[in-house]
Amino acid sequence: MPFLRKIFAITVLGSALYGCTSTAPVDADISSAEAIPTPSPVPEQDIEYGAFTEEQLYQTIVGEMSGQQGNLKGASDTYFKLAFETKDLGIIRRAIQFASVGGDINGVVQLGLLWAEQQPEEVAPHLMLSFQLLDAGRFEDAVNHMADVINMGGQIDFAAVSARTQRLPADRRARLIENLRQLHRLYPDQSSIQYAVVELLDQNQQAQDAIVELQILRQNYGNSPRSLLIEAQLLQKLEQLDQSRRVLRNGIRSFPEDKLLRFNYARLLIQDEELNKARRQFEILIEQDPDDHETLYSIALLDVEMEAFDEARAQFSRLIDVDHRVNESRFYLGFISEKEQKLQQAIGHYRTVEAGAANFITAQQQATRFAIELEQYDEAHDWLVDLSRGRPRLEVLFTNIETTFLMQAQEFDRAMVVLNEMLQRFPDNTDMLFTRVMLHDAMDDIVNSEQDLQRIIALQPEDARALNHLGYMLADRTTRYAEALDLIERAITISPDDAAIIDSLAWAQYKLGRYEESLKNLRRAFATFPDHEVASHLGEVLWVSGQESEAMRVWRDALKETPDSDLIKEAMQRLNP
Questions:
Q1: Looking at the domain assignment, is residue 105 inside a domain?
Q2: Distance of alpha carbon 291 from its chain centroid, rounded?
Q3: What angle do CA 314, 320, 326 make, to 5 degrees?
Q4: What's the total number of domains in the chain?
Q5: Residues 493-535: pLDDT tens digits?
């Protein structure tokens, strides 16, 4: 026994057996180095261990070593058993630590109940149990322990209840509302209980009842920024926007220093498109707190919306100087230059957006677009190559972006060089192969287009995009109608509701003389996707089916939306010269 005592003192003294005098938090992160304290040297003397048996001391060492080795489950199981054997407060708290870090909510609850039994007058175990039971979905039990906390003179915010009941069935939430109302009758000075009732009513889609409850709350406790904000939000849900706005306006008069009220009032003004008034509210927030950079960002966005570009530029530059929302600010500086048609400046700003930022890809896309518009082909290419070097996914993405803009600029040969160079490195990349298909189409090269599409289908037999594209091309540009129909039917099996594929199916059916089926599918496609290409097909099939007046109506309506549609004009000229 003396040898065991000596080992025990060296390894775990100060971490496990601190007994009733321990003040370690029960939710400490025991997976960190700080969670299990480094022991201090202890004098060579006999130590009194109370009623612990030698086996219990040994199990405590085993539990601690398991925790240090990362075996939290083993440590938790060991300490859980020890807690109920010894009923020692130090062991109970340590067991709660391990169970909590291990995510064993049920274990934590059982240990918390044991702790409450050992210290019935202590607030701490009931406080812990309240939150653990809430997380376990045992709301009624949690409310009982919250009541115990109040009885013992503790403080607890019942908003913790409504924060966890978003997915609760309506009938259970209704029972919880009644429980809280009964509790409030016992503790009428606890305003947070009534606030929780309001929020639960709101979650139960009872916004009007929630407003009534809120009015009672005000009678009991008076106006507060919180009550006004909740009322405004409830009124918005009831689509009573004018009243919501009035509540917020009166709220900032009564509580001019409350930032949340003023911020929400400004947001409502933006929703009503009263941008100048909204900007003034944000300005007041900045006057109250000059270091509120998030509000400064809101002002800058408003200035962009109002096309007050000089003011917006100044705000974004200031945000960059204070290192707040730097990449967003750089992006919007590029956007402002773009709007002002200062494309070279826009390119410079967009390129300063850092990799990893939410708008990084969009920024590089815009920079590439404008560089190609300015015929800076080599410079645009070199920038993208340097930026993506060593990152294959980014290399592929940037190649597709570059070639797309080169195609738009009618620089087909340059686009082909860029694509072919990258496809030598990634010959099976279907995204780049499909981009080359689009390039072949633009160059009217049906042979190579089919070759790339067949390659994509061989690599990915379930690629509905490639199946549809090849099928439509064969139906539209060749007489291989049966083959086209087979490909499109494979595509429609994969994506049965895709309007573009339904249109292709109808077109192949039309070429095969199956007018009735074709017309049915074209009407279906046009109902969900009234595109000018679908309109041209629908009009043509209607015309050859003898329904000329409806065909003309479809074409003319489509031309109102897309007056430059060559597809519709060609069909009309060909069928009704």
A1: yes
A2: 28
A3: 125
A4: 1
A5: 999 999 999 999 999 999 999 999 999 999 999 999 999 999 9
